[in-house]
Write a structure and sequence with these properties.
The longest helix has 20 residues. Helix content is 34%, strand content 24%.
Length: 311
Amino acid sequence: MKVYHDIYSFPKLPFPIVTTGTFDGVHLGHCTILEKLKSYRLVSGHETVVITFNPHPRLVLQPNDNKLELLNSLDEKIELLSKQGIDHLLVIPFDKNFAALSSLEFIEQILVKTIGTKKLVIGHDHHFGKNREGSFENLRQSGPQYGFEVEEIPAKDINHVAISSTKIREALHNGDIVTANKFLGYQYKMEGIVVKGRQLGDTIGFPTANLEIIGQRKLIPQNGVYAVTVSIDNSIYQGMMNIGNRPTVETNGERKVEVHILNFSGNLYGKKLQINCVDRIRDEKKFTSLDELKSQLKEDKNQIKSLLSSV
């Protein structure tokens, strides 16, 4: 997949088959649209194009809304779309000037002038342009004038999977990793840089990598202990991750993400780790002593090893 980060570098294509959207999560609902896009490529041999935006439009349009949390960083979204077999990805920088484009200006400047769209596939109830004024009807009316066809994926074809980014976020907030992964079609991912911590884990035999999570407004699941896999320099390890405030060893501690990597030793400071969340095994809790904490961590480790061995 070829990636373009501005409209000026996008090449001229003979017959682009296009879709557009934020695609946060690149979940199974999105894949319904992407599969339709690819089905036309299979028949015609023409190339597929996905248009998306960075940052997420709501971060620009509602900058004071701290409730929005995203399922993907930009790099994660690019990786997921690449795995879907898309030919071209145009990532449009979203700012206030772009947000001010009317629906007609979006059609003329982006779909026609930049992309040269010949076939456009959109999801049910898709809106675009300033104040989300544009709709399927606007596209349908503009198509003949500008030389493109437009197809709207019926609601029944998307809704039958009963999946939305909102439902996935709710599942993650509830710590229901299994449901979130089912809706996503893959294991929920987080990437982070290993930073120096207090190294308290070393003293009880469970050294942890403290992670600074990558991605603006990246959603971090509910506090608790998780079974995960960890990718380090293209090698994959089993791991147990804790998300929370570490109440046994901290008072009023800030929320942290840390992972104990099974069967690994070495210096990880400054490295980027990819965490794949498999399941949540328990709540975070406060223990009366470090010995009690250590005993629970041994139980957690055995449970996680058993769980991951069966995945």
